[in-house]
Amino acid sequence: MTGSAVITVSTAPSISVNPASQAKCVGESVTFSVTASGSSPGYQWRKNGSNITGANSSSYTIPSVVAGDAANYDVVVSVTNCTSVTSTAATLTVNPLPTVYNVTGGGTSCSSVNVGLSGSQSGVNYTLSPSGTVVAGTGSAISFGGQTSSATYTVAATNATTGCSANMSGSAVVTISAAPAITVQPTDQTTCVGGTVTFTITGTGGSLVYQWKKNGSSTL
After folding, report:
1. What pTM was estimated for this model as a whole?
2. Are 159 and 136 in contact (CB under 8 A)?
3. Which end of the chain has fewer CB within 10 Å, C or N?
4. 23: exposed, middle or buried (C-beta count within 10 Å: 0-12, 13-18, 19+)?
């Protein structure tokens, strides 16, 4: 009696590049990847040693990390009928965003208007837009000094160590009005009793208001 037997020899799994540890800010995306060889290897990613459901490819992505994602991640690479291998663990560090404070201040002036922040954190730099002014956090309310351009100002906070950034809530509207100026002064005039006289000036500036005076008094 004759026959045959098919023997399939699989190549055992091997990892050449392990996943790397990473640090991310809350809300950022993170991807862990592994480079492995073997006969049609299968993958199972794990978080702190527990299988992650559906994480069965050579890479694993978390689209938007939260504090609870901070952990050690590794991947088990397997080939049917062969001994599986496990990568070294990659640590995910999740850094928090700066605390969000309210932007305050603003207003209307002929020269400059202050823009403030209701609080701040040490180790955080605050950037005022659109002026680009940067102020370091002090742990208390801070001011960005006099702004001399009309605009809607917003503030972004960046942790000086981690680089994590957050936009502060609200905004301050600064309106700089042109200071009043007189380009044509009133002229001296002579008239008869009962006659009519008119004094005029030409002025420039924003939303001009006029008050004529007689011998220094506004009561005519």
Report:
1. 0.75
2. no
3. N
4. middle
